[in-house]
Amino acid sequence: MDDQSFLARRLDRAAAPLAIGDVLVLMAFLTAGTLSHRPAEFLVNNPTYLLGVWAPFLIGWFLVSPLVGAYAAGAAETAKSSVPLVVRSWIPAAAIGFVLRA
What we know:
It comes from Halorubrum pallidum. The protein is mainly α. Helices cover 75% and strands 0% of the residues.
């Protein structure tokens, strides 16, 4: 019998740099999207606004990505293994983010 928890099997410490990179890329995309709707001056005058944009989508990402195994051992070894995991993570994570942001 495997004594590892479900979450322990889904999270590999070696994938930590990948997770950090994913969070930074997600924040960059969300910031770029915000800048397409709001001027940079608005963000300078309202420095916490981006936190309200980032939070729902990061919550969605942190909920979904471990469930689909985006950071499991071997998940990022090849594009063939990582691309389906990214797609299965992004779609529901974005949906959760949109619902939380609404």
